[in-house]
Structures are given as structure tokens and as C-alpha cells.
Design brief:
The chain has about 600 residues and is α+β, with helices and mostly antiparallel strands. The chain has 3 domains: about 30 residues; about 190 residues, Penicillin-binding protein 2a (Domain 2) (Alpha-Beta Complex), CATH 3.90.1310.10; about 325 residues, DD-peptidase/beta-lactamase superfamily (Beta-lactamase, 3-Layer(aba) Sandwich). It contains 21 helices and 22 strands. Helix 10 runs antiparallel to helix 20. It is elongated.
């Protein structure tokens, strides 16, 4: 044989062997080493179904169920698996238009062609059963279990909150969530989202060419069990909350009750309110839009935490404490009244009486007394300038819980308004004194506070100088696992001895002063009336109290918008709340009727 031909033959055979070896190595890599093609093939026959864990339940302080779960179903789609199907049939089954279906499919493709997205959410059992019979007609679609919240007693909507679909920003910031997942939007649902949501599981199932499930993959070997969310025990007293909301029907305002020994919120009423079941299910968006559009009643607005009111005469209690702490007054300090406080050509009126010491000034709510005390506090000769004196007063008022947030599990709270030195320097061009801001002495003018802040002031007074941050969850996981996040005792910066004359004055307010409507037979109450001026209509009715005087178990703050003088309406409501809390029944039926029948006129711009 020709040696040249033989050499060429060997080269060709060698080249073919090399090519065959490379081809075999490539096949080995694809089939054995590289799993992605195998996994891609398996995805055509295996479906991973996310198991959403049951969300934690929410109870009241006495084990009454406030929030539980109900089953619902979502129709999901994996865009890459979709094949030609009868769109008219699916649209009729879901009761949506073809245009809407196309829009939803396009949104799913834009999110991810490989990951599941929601096409129809929160279907009822009946709709799910009807759809399940037709699923073989819709390749690429499948049904996933979903859990909805339900409220057996439609109360405490603002504090319990609600859940809603995650936003794109939340999807980006937290890998736990997928498109279509639900997350706490407000209230306890938001504050304790991580505890309530649990841990997701997964279920691997075999699917045939007709999109029908054929059973578990590998007998469930690759399934992961979902871990349910933790249950919560709130601080709320369901009976008290329900009764408070009933008393406030037809009125605008708030009731806040706190257990002073712990800072636990016993009830928190914001009126008008709404049925929390309205923000559950397929109609949630429509119902939310309707509630949000009700500008006259603003039912979504949480007045207890976000409304910033002039606290009125209840603020005199804080000024009386600070004036003592700053050594401006002692209990026996006497200021004459004569019908008001005069400064320059102005006069801040008061009901006519000769004058008062501190205890009597609290009892009869003397404007003149607290104006003198406030002026002498911020203009104290110990401080070189009005700015320095005012800053000392502001530091005290901040330490009493005003002008700042509590930063607990209370959702979306306002910090209120306590102006800075810079604010007044700007307003008065640096030239001002105690009389320039004298309205703050009686809780008017530039000061603003939330009902929660006022209820907390009463807790400080009841405790004689300290408080625990107000909060609404007392146990997490089990009833015997206390929520210790807010267990730190906070010093209010006022010596204990200075509370004695304030409390005595408050006791006299109820027994013989402006708050006699707050009396409850058998329970000694210390209280303070208030009238918060309102530029948009009738003044707001305000009352603050705690009981019993010697061993306080509850503090109550009530504000009724446009309710006029505090002793008329707010004091009666506080009295009934206190009576119900201790006795679980109401014997003051005539007072209850007066509160329920009380009609209030609201202007369109009053809130």
C-alpha cells in the first residue's frame, strides 16, 4: 500500500476518534455532570407547588379569638408552559373579560416566564370546585391554596390591621415573598409580619401532558413541610373594645384605655371605624377605595394614633407637674384669678372665682393659675434667656411622652406637636417671652397631642412618675411566652412627691368639681375635664381619668370631636368604660342612654 495513502488514512481515523471522543465527553457532561437539562426535562413533568403556611391567629388578653384563617384558592400560571387553550371558556369560568385575561397573562410573562404568577386570586370553594373539573383544558395553569383572614367580631379594625398583596419594592427587598403573596399592611398584621407569616413549604407533584396531577414526586422525598406562623395574644380586652366602639357610634373621636402597671393597651377606639372583613377577599380593593373616598367620615384614619388635637385643660396636669419640678410652685402656691389671666391688652378668660392653690386649681380647672405657673416656668430667673427656659420645659414635656413617637408596635403613630425653640425664634424674630406662647399653658395654641399620648400621661400620673411604652401585643407563640420588648420602666423625670397634689385635685374633680359626670358607684376615680378648641366647629369634648385612685388598674382618655364641654359627653363615656371594665355590666343605664342618644352636628370640613 502506498505509504502516503496509509499515513492519510491513519490521520483521518485519528481525527474521527478525537471527534467521537469529544462528542462522547460532551454527551457525558450534558447527561451526567450538567443537571440543568435534566431539570428542564423534569420541569415538563414535575410541578413545584408552594405551600403557604397558616398565618398565626390573634387572640385578645382573655383568649377570645380576634383573627383566624379561612381557606381560599388562587389560579396560578407558569407562562412558558402555556399552550393554546380556549380563552373564552376560561374567561367565562373566572367571570372576567378576554382583555383582562390577556393583561394578566402579559403581567405574568413580564414578571417571569418560568415562575408562577397569580391570574385569579382568592376564589371561594364553590368556584374552585367548578374550575378544578376543567383544569385539563388549560395547560400551564394550576390552583394553589391560599389563606384569608377572617374576623368573628368586626371590631378593632385600625389596630388589628389587614393584609394585602406584596408590592414590587417588597419583592425586591425580601426574598421570602413571590408575586401574589400577601403581607401585613397595617396594624398588628404589619408590626408582627415576621412572626405571623410562618415559613413556606413545597410540594412536588407529577403532572401529565393534560396538566393533571398524577401524585407526589419521589413519594414526597423532596417535599418540605410549611411551618405555621406564631399566634399572638393581644393586650386588648375584646368586651371593652366592643363596648367602646358601640358607645362611639355616630360620633367622631377616640377612646384609649391603658393598664398603667404594664403599658398594655386595653382598648383603642377610633370612630368612625369599619368592618375589617371588608378588606378581605376579591372585593378588598373595591371596598378600600370606597372607604378611602369617604372624606366626611374618614373611616380609615386612626384618630387614636394619628390625629393631633389640642389637649385642652387635661394638659394642665403636665404643666402643674413641671412647674413643681422646676421649683416654680409648691402645693400651697396661690394665684388670684378674677375671671382670667391678663397680659398686656389681652385677657385669657376663666370662670370667675377669687383664686386657687394647686389642688383647687386642678379641681376647678383654673386657667389663670396654670398661665401664671407656665409663664414663671419658661421665664424662670434661673435661666438666662426665654429660649433656655423654654428648652428646659420642652425637655420635661418630651420626657412625659409628648412630641415624639413611642416606637412600639403601634402602627403609623404621629409624634404630635411640641414646637422647637427655633420655631418660635422664627415666628417672633427672636423677640418673645412666656406670654407670647401662653395658650400652651392650657393645652391650646401651638401644642398638639394624640389620644394615645394623653392616655400615657394619665398612666404616668397613676404610677406616680414612670410608665411602660404603650403596646398592643402581650405574648408571642404561646400565652405563657410574654412579649418582653416593652418591659423597660421609663422614668418621666418628675419626683414622686409632686404627683400627690395633682392626684388629690383630680379626685376632687370627680367628687365635687367639673367632672362629676364621671362618677361610678363603688369606684373612686381621679379625672380631669377638658375642652379642646376647634376652629372648624363646636369644641371637642375631652376627659382623662384613672381608677381606682389608690391602686390604679386602668387609665382612660376620651375625646369626642365637636362634643362641646368635656364634662358633658367625654366624662360620661369615660365613666361607662370604667364601670364596664371593673363590673362587666352597666348599671348606669340612664347615662348610657344619654351617651347613645347624644347627637352631634358635623360640618363638612370638621374632622
Amino acid at each position: 500500500m502506498n505509504p502516503i495513502f496509509e499515513r492519510r488514512k491513519r490521520i483521518i481515523i485519528l481525527a474521527m476518534c478525537i471527534l467521537a471522543s469529544l462528542y462522547l465527553l460532551k454527551l457525558f457532561g450534558l447527561q451526567v455532570v450538567d443537571k440543568k437539562y435534566k431539570e428542564a426535562a423534569e420541569r415538563n413533568a414535575i410541578r413545584e407547588i408552594t405551600i403557604t403556611p397558616p398565618r398565626g391567629l390573634i387572640y385578645d388578653r382573655n383568649d377570645s379569638l380576634l383573627v383566624y384563617n379561612e381557606a381560599a384558592y388562587d389560579l396560578m400560571v407558569i407562562p412558558k408552559d402555556v399552550r393554546e387553550f380556549d380563552t373564552t371558556d376560561l374567561c367565562n369560568t373566572l367571570d372576567i373579560t378576554k382583555e383582562e385575561l390577556i393583561k394578566r397573562l402579559e403581567k405574568a410573562r413580564n414578571y417571569s416566564p418560568l415562575l408562577p404568577s397569580i391570574i385569579e386570586q382568592q376564589m371561594k370553594k364553590e368556584d374552585y370546585g367548578y374550575l378544578q373539573e376543567k383544569m385539563h383544558k388549560f395547560p400551564g395553569f394550576f390552583v394553589q391554596n391560599r389563606i384569608l383572614r377572617s374576623y368573628p367580631v368586626p371590631i378593632a379594625a385600625h389596630i388589628l390591621g389587614y393584609i394585602g398583596e406584596v408590592t414590587e419594592e417588597q419583592l425586591t427587598n425580601d426574598s421570602y415573598y413571590q408575586m401574589g403573596d400577601y403581607i401585613g399592611i397595617s396594624g398588628i398584621e404589619k408590626s408582627y409580619e415576621e412572626e405571623l407569616r410562618g415559613v413556606k413549604g413545597k410540594h412536588m407533584v407529577l403532572v401529565d401532558v393534560n396538566n393533571r396531577e398524577q401524585g407526589s414526586y419521589k413519594n414526597g422525598a423532596e417535599d418540605v413541610e410549611a411551618i405555621p406562623g406564631k399566634n399572638l395574644w393581644s393586650t386588648l380586652d375584646m368586651g371593652l373594645q366592643k363596648y367602646g366602639e358601640w358607645l362611639m357610634e355616630g360620633k367622631k373621636g377616640s377612646i384609649v384605655a391603658i393598664e398603667p402597671a404594664t403599658g398594655e393597651v386595653l382598648c383603642i377606639v377610633s370612630s368612625p371605624s369599619y368592618d375589617p372583613n371588608l378588606l378581605v377577599g376579591k372585593n378588598r380593593s373595591k371596598n378600600y377605595a370606597a372607604l378611602n373616598a369617604d372624606m366626611n367620615n374618614t373611616p380609615l384614619f386612626n384618630r387614636a394614633l394619628k390625629a393631633c388635637y389640642p389637649p385642652g385643660s387635661t394638659f394642665k396636669l403636665a404643666n402643674g407637674l413641671i412647674a413643681q419640678q422646676e421649683r416654680v410652685i409648691v402645693p400651697s402656691t396661690y394665684y388670684s384669678c378674677g375671671g382670667g389671666y391678663t397680659f398686656g391688652s389681652h385677657r385669657l378668660k376663666c370662670h370667675s372665682h377669687a383664686g386657687s392653690d394647686l389642688i383647687d386649681a386642678v379641681r376647678c380647672s383654673c386657667n389663670a393659675y396654670f398661665c401664671h405657673a407656665f409663664y414663671n416656668t419658661v421665664s424662670n430667673r434661673r435661666y438666662r434667656t426665654i429660649q433656655e427656659g423654654y428648652q428646659v420645659w420642652k425637655d420635661h414635656i418630651n420626657q412625659l411622652g409628648f412630641g415624639q413617637k413611642f416606637n412600639t408596635d403601634l402602627p403609623y403613630e404621629s409624634k404630635g406637636i411640641i414646637p422647637s425653640v427655633e420655631f418660635f425664634n422664627t415666628r417672633y424674630n427672636g423677640h418673645w417671652n412666656g406670654n407670647s406662647i401662653i395658650s400652651m399653658a392650657i393645652g391650646q395654641g401651638e401644642v398638639g397631642a394624640t389620644p394615645m399620648q394623653m392616655a400615657n400621661l394619665l398612666a404616668i400620673i397613676a404610677n406616680r412618675g414612670y410608665y411602660y411604652k404603650p403596646h398592643v401585643v402581650r405574648a408571642i407563640g404561646t400565652k405563657d411566652t410574654p412579649n418582653t420588648r416593652y418591659a423597660q420602666k421609663i422614668d418621666a423625670g418628675i419626683e414622686q412627691k409632686y404627683f400627690t397634689p395633682i392626684i388629690e385635685g383630680m379626685r376632687l374633680v370627680v367628687t365635687s368639681g367639673t367632672g362629676r359626670q364621671a362618677q361610678v358607684p363603688g369606684i373612686e376615680i381621679a379625672g380631669k375635664t377638658g375642652t379642646a378648641q376647634n376652629p372648624h366647629g363646636e369644641d371637642h369634648s375631652v376627659f382623662a381619668c384613672f381608677a381606682p385612685v389608690d391602686h390604679p388598674q386602668i387609665t382612660v382618655f376620651v375625646l369626642v370631636e365637636n362634643g362641646s364641654w368635656g364634662g358633658v359627653l367625654a366624662a360620661r363615656i369615660a365613666s361607662l368604660i370604667t364601670e364596664y371594665y371593673f363590673n362587666r355590666e352597666i348599671k348606669q343605664t340612664e347615662k348610657e342612654k344619654q351617651v347613645r342618644d347624644h347627637k352631634i352636628y358635623y360640618r363638612n370640613n370638621a374632622r
